[in-house]
């Protein structure tokens, strides 16, 4: 399924994300072709039947829809306006295979549009990744959209920068060792880091960062 993900134009989709969100914040999303009874109440909550109809619009079959609903039951009670706006917002940053991302990170459709935009902007500005690299990072590890910027993303990216990694090297680190973002620092990463320093790696060096990434990839 990963191979089926089709990316939008890298040079424009991320930069137009804010414009997209602003344009949809004050107006209703484009109307899909719903049955008359549903059109009469566009904010009706999604039951399974409604979910099947909406997901079919983006070419997600019945089996995948049931998997998505099992992974994220809140979709059953999300208004049509909200779920359509989130689909469009995700597609505007190149995420077209919604089923893939939902299975990897069930909560992705529950985040506010501001939350998603804020994380994408952080990855672009502070981490320094370009558009294709941002796509790749989210594709490999969608949970980066869920991780706390203050508690996880910022301090861990800061550590990689202190080790001397440039933006491209950070990108390679994140895509090769994505658990770096997910693992607990106190219960896991700190012990790995301490062991590497103890056996002779100098703190805050590229050599330490490379070894750290290798050890993280070996984590269960």
Q: Mind explaining what this structure looks like?
A:
The chain is elongated. 25% of the residues are buried. The chain is mainly alpha-helical and 220 residues long. The protein has helices at residues 17-25, 36-39, 48-57, 62-71, 80-92, 98-104, 113-127, 131-140, 149-162, 167-176, 179-182, 185-198, 206-217.
Number of strands: 0
Proportion of residues in extended strands: under 5%
Helix content: 55-70%
Helix and strand composition category: mainly alpha
Largest sheet: none
Radius of gyration: 20 Å
User: What's the shape?
Assistant: elongated
Instruction: Return the string of H and E elements.
Output: HHHHHHHHHHHHH
- Regarding quaternary structure, what we see is single chain
Mean residue pLDDT: 75
| N-end to C-end Cα span | 24 Å
- Number of helices, where a helix is a run of at least 4 consecutive DSSP H or I residues: 13
Spans where pLDDT lies below 50 across 5 or more residues: 1-46
């Amino acid at each position: 399924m990963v191979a089926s993900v089709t990316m939008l134009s890298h040079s424009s989709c991320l930069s137009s994300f804010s414009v997209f969100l602003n344009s949809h914040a004050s107006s209703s999303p484009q109307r899909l072709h719903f049955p008359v009874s549903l059109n009469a109440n566009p904010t009706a909550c999604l039951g399974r039947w409604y979910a099947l109809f909406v997901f079919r619009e983006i070419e997600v079959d019945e089996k995948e829809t049931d998997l998505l609903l099992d992974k994220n039951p809140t979709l059953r009670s999300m208004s049509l306006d909200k779920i359509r706006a989130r689909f469009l917002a995700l597609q505007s940053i190149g995420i077209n295979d919604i089923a893939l991302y939902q299975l990897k990170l069930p909560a992705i459709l529950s985040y506010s549009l501001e939350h998603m935009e804020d994380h994408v902007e952080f990855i672009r500005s502070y981490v320094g990744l370009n558009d294709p690299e941002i796509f790749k990072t989210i594709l490999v590890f969608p949970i980066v959209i869920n991780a706390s910027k203050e508690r996880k993303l910022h301090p861990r990216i800061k550590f990689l920068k202190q080790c001397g990694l440039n933006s491209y090297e950070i990108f390679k680190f994140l895509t090769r060792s994505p658990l770096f973002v997910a693992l607990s620092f106190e219960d896991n990463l700190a012990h790995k880091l301490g062991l590497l320093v103890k056996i002779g790696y100098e703190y805050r060096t590229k050599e330490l960062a490379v070894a750290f990434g290798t050890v993280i990839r070996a984590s269960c």
